[in-house]
Design brief:
Layout lengths: L13 H22 L6 H14 L3 E5 L2 H11 L6 E6 L5 H4 L7 E5 L10 H13 L3 E5 L11 H10 L3 E5 L7 E2 L2 E2 L6 E5 L13 E5 L2 H11 L21 H11 L2 H19 L12 E2 L5 E4 L3 H13 L29 H9 E4 L7 H18 L1
Parallel strand pairs: 2-3, 2-4, 4-5, 5-8
Antiparallel strand pairs: 1-9, 6-7, 6-10, 8-9, 11-12
Bound molecules: pyridoxal-5'-phosphate (PLP).
Pyridoxal-5'-phosphate binds next to helix 3 and helix 4.
Length: about 375
């Protein structure tokens, strides 16, 4: 049932999705306008329940955005001064940004070159390094980058060894699977974002925190509303104003209804891309027992200059591309003074220099994938 004809390829096609849920959107948004409970309305409660049953998580606490979801988590775990929090150097700035806001120290860890996820050897080295610096290793924030779950089993072993907590940044990973677990259950606390371009996105900012732990869930609910106690005017801790709008919850309920199918379509499209490109350029690696949510389909060019050439040719022919991410976090002005793996983060740097992402998502057409692959392949042939 396709109603929108595109004359150029979108990086992420949100219009086709909207055409599929239009009547449901109108019905649900109409209901919010009719009841008028714009803050913490019934749709927020319904969405949190629906996200729990989708993910298998026990508690879901929706919030204002994915960055706040990380701040809420750090606050609920009591992360503070003198604590070290370990993050990959190759991720969105939002992963690390909230750590200094709670007076803790981000420590930048290298990535595994095949999965783009946090590297276990580098994590171990960085923890030992932080102890030598006099810091207390407190938490690890693995990132399910581009939708692919991190190596949670090995991360869990290291966390246990140093009595650390895991906050899973699954902003890009909602809908992904690690063994028989779904995103939302990967860490002690897991977070996600509903920014429009994420796998499950709303029409504005939104986020959520997931946990199995009742006490943390209560603390998170309190922090979300100004550190409330028994009621909103009984403030028992410093909190935030970080609620998800009722209108955004209504939109997410419509999108969640088709999300399972969208994940299947994302898998199918990624498989198609991979089958056309494999052997000619470095395609994404998905280890056994992991299912990506395919937030992005990201390739690695043989070099920085070749990335530039391939992207220019794609753009010239009307194909949008993006670079996630052009710099490692530790080289950004805001983070340059924080500790890094003593061996450096060479794989993060290499990724920042060579990666580029292609148009993807559930609704990209097979013909468009063919067209894009033909351009990439002809560019690769030209350099052989
Ligand atoms: C998008 C994103 C965030 C932040 O989410 P917002 O909702 O935009 O605040 C954090 N971490 C990662 C890895 C992201 O991709």
């Amino acid at each position: 049932m396709k109603t929108i004809k595109r004359d150029r390829i979108q990086f992420i096609d949100l219009a086709t999705q909207q055409s599929l849920i239009k009547s449901d959107l109108e019905r649900r948004l109409g209901a919010v306008l009719a009841h008028g409970k714009y803050i913490m309305g019934p749709e927020v409660v319904d969405l949190e329940k629906a996200l729990c049953s989708f993910s298998g998580a026990k508690h879901c606490i929706s919030c204002a955005n994915g960055t706040d979801a990380l701040l809420l988590s750090l606050m609920a775990l009591g992360v503070g001064a003198n604590d070290a929090v370990f993050v990959p150097a190759f991720t969105f700035a939002g992963t690390a940004e909230m750590i200094p806001h709670v007076n803790a120290t981000p420590v930048f860890v290298d990535i595994d070159p095949l999965t783009f996820n946090i590297d276990i050897g580098s994590l171990q080295r960085s923890i030992e390094h932080s102890i030598k610096l006099g810091l207390n290793p407190k938490a690890i924030i693995p990132v399910d980058l581009f939708g692919l779950p991190a190596d949670y089993e090995n991360i869990q072993n290291i966390a246990a060894q140093f009595d650390m907590k895991i906050i899973s940044d699954s902003a890009q990973g909602f809908g992904s699977k690690y063994k028989d677990r779904r995103s939302g259950t990967f860490g002690d606390i897991s977070t996600t974002s509903f920014f429009p371009a994420k796998p499950l996105g709303c029409y504005g900012d939104g986020g959520a925190v997931f946990t199995e732990d009742e006490a943390w869930a209560d603390t998170l609910r309190s922090i979300r509303v100004h550190g409330k106690g028994a009621n909103k005017y009984d403030n028992i801790r410093l909190g935030l104003n970080s609620r998800l709008d009722t209108i955004q919850a209504a939109i997410l309920l419509c999108k969640l209804a088709i999300f399972e199918n969208e994940i299947d379509l994302r898998q199918r499209n990624a498989r198609f891309y991979t089958s056309r490109l494999e052997g000619f350029i470095a395609v994404p690696t998905v280890p056994a027992n992991r299912h990506s949510a395919w937030a992005q389909f990201t390739l690695r060019a043989p070099s920085g200059p070749l990335r530039q050439e391939i992207c220019s040719e794609l753009n010239r022919q009307g194909v949008p591309t993006n670079i996630y991410y052009p710099a490692t976090l530790n080289e950004l002005p805001v983070f340059k003074d924080y500790p890094v793996d003593p061996h450096g983060v060479p794989e993060s740097k290499k990724a920042a220099d060579t990666v580029f992402s292609l148009p993807s998502g559930p609704y990209i057409e097979r013909d468009d994938i063919e067209f894009i692959c033909d351009i990439v392949l002809s560019q690769m042939e030209a350099v052989q």
